[in-house]
Amino acid sequence: MKINPANSLRGTLVLPGDKSISHRAAMLASIADGPSRITNFLTAEDCLSTLACMQQLGVKAARMGTTVEINGAGKYGLRASGEPLDCGNSGTTARLISGLLAGQRFDTTLIGDESLSKRPMNRVIRPLKALGAEIEATDGKLPVKVLGRPLNASEVSLEVASAQVKSCLLLAGLYAGGKTTVVEPVQTRDHTERMFDWLGADISIEIRDNARHITVSGESELTARDISVPADISSAAFLLVAAACLEGSDLRLPNVGLNPTRIGILEVLKRCGVKVKVENEREASGEPIGDLVIEGGIGRQELTLLSGPLIPNIIDEIPILAVFGTQLPHGIEIRNAEELRVKETDRIAAIVRNLREMSISVDEFDDGFRVYPGRPKGAEIESFGDHRIAMAFAVAGLFSEGETTINGHEACEISFPAFFDALDSIVS
Ligand code: S3P
User: Is the distance from CB of 174 to CB of 218 less than 8 angstroms?
Assistant: First the structure.
């Protein structure tokens, strides 16, 4: 894919559904009692992997465009799959479904693509075992065999700040005898908690000793209820940064998810002098949403170092923030983000390599990087099969000198299949 410099982004763009919420909607609607309709479901590869897994577990689901109708099988209505479940490239599918399957009355094998088969599963295997689960894996990686067993409720503290691990344990908690508490020292995205509540599960949250204590009862039943999925703020982030960096841009992104655990990107943009505002704030299926309006241009930069508890809130936006850093008067520094090393690719290495390819100075750290300001030079970029790397560097190409080529641009199929067409429709 070739990208050439652009002047501005103008117009209104309706973005695809939120990836995290779509995964959860497909899983929870499947174990709820009765039929429900999910609208604006993300029909990208990752969420289609989740939907296909649920169908393999015997759930009846039909998809018409971005609407999915699911006939919820009830909490104990899932059936053994004759074949392994293929999680594709999706870490969220593999981690969450492990929790869902641990307390079933049957065994399941999970597999994934080459990238997913290198990513850590011990982060869910270890705490699931603390609930009495039995899981077989070689070297803590896929393929993983989840042997369905009765689980014992317990209190588990998260060792990594990961919404995937938290959600896995909350799903397992639905099947444990008694009340399961997940202790979260650093807040991560809370879509699972919100959707449990939306569907009537018995869940409560308490802040104690500087940590969130999330308790779910194994007696919980989920009641089928329609779910409207907001546009994905992590997809919006690419366009927000592109608009900010192209003077004269004027862009509106309607119905974007504005969950407080996901809007760190907006705070960062504002504190870097970008004019971005929220209009028409409202709620949809238990999630805050609104329209984002952004004008091109960067003003006074008040923030250079992004670290600490902010990191889980902006975890998926770090590749595009690295690109943004090239246009900031003081550049940008990211620390405490070692989790990026175990994403779809080692994102720290991919960011550093590609920025250097574009003649930008970067320091690499174990847990992040520092980007120095400068105009990127068009170059040959590798996506390393990672959707967010492909899209972030496509955006860099919009304000680089000369032409940029993205090798492996089709990785955007994972979360934003129409990304390049969407960009084309608003670029001038
Ligand atoms: C996700 C959580 C994050 C994020 C991923 C989606 C989720 O991963 O990077 O894209 O839907 O729970 P971690 O929980 O591993 O940080």
Answer: yes
